[in-house]
Amino acid sequence: MKKLLYQFDTDALPSLFDNVVGYDGGADHISAYGGIDARNVGGLVEGAIFTRGIKDKKSTAIFIGGGNMAEGEAVLAAVRKKFFEKFRVSVMFDCNGCNTTACAAVARLAHGRSLAGKRAVVLGGSGPVGQRAAVLLAREGAEVAITGRKLDVVQAACDSIHARFGIVVRAVEAPTNAERGAAVEGAQIVLATGAAGITLLQEKQWQDSATLELVADANASPPAGIEGVGLNDRDLPKHGKILFGSLGFGALKLALHRACISRLFEQNDLLLDAEEIYAIAKTMVD
């Protein structure tokens, strides 16, 4: 029985990255659909759940991606609404890499150390990866704030986090370098998850900090999101801090993504979202 993965992407063009990793994760064939939303996904789901016998449904799975996490979550809700009794297939939710990237980053930060009671700041944190990272850091016991250029956008992200996870995250408006520097004062952890091409924090703003312990940058494209953090940094001591670059946890992100795809085909009732993917990530950190 062929392992069929249906890639539902909220963007007009389905992610090529997710497509490649889907094959590397064990799918025999991937059908990628762009422009998916909660209104048009229903028929596709019906096609997935009604075509194979109960024992063979585990060989069909759904991956939900796209750049807009709110739209992706609406798609996820619409997909799950179509399921009933044994007429269901396993689903993975990872809009814009929100879960696999954030889970890999936080699993690295938390590996071998406690984050409980630490203050963490997620720079450029209103996007999918930043939101999920904020949740995971809070679940590890940290007091978390996220920054962004516009307070209403950041507050909306915090409200979304609270509605979905019941976690309180503080919103900080910080459109300038100076304001972002002020936002990390007194923090022990800083993680940059902003858009590519923007340096959110200069090296001089963190190197002399008396409180910062862990400095991580999720940006894989130059310039660095946090100046002075190298792409390959992984548990690298510098200026008395421990540094993590995007490739420093990127190998774990890719391995995690592939492992999750593989698990989709083990049963037909699995849902892989933030909590489930993070639990897998913690077992994979070396």
Q: Structural class per helix/strand content?
A: alpha/beta
CATH class annotation of the largest domain:
Alpha Beta
Q: What's the CATH H-level homologous superfamily of the largest domain? A: NAD(P)-binding Rossmann-like Domain
Topology, number of strands: 12
Largest sheet: 7 strands, mixed
The CA-CA distance between the termini, in Å, is 34 Å
Unreliable segments of 5+ consecutive residues: none
The helix/strand order is EHEHEHEHEHEHEHEHEEEHEH
**CATH architecture descriptor text of the largest domain:** 3-Layer(aba) Sandwich
Please tell me the total number of domains: 2
Give the CATH topology of the largest domain.
Rossmann fold
Note the total helix count.
10
Spatial order of strands in the largest sheet: 7-6-5-8-9-11-10
Radius of gyration: 19 Å
Query: How much helicity do the residues have?
Result: 25-40%
Q: Approximately how much beta-strand content do the residues carry?
A: 15-25%
Shape: elongated
Mean pLDDT, all residues: 97
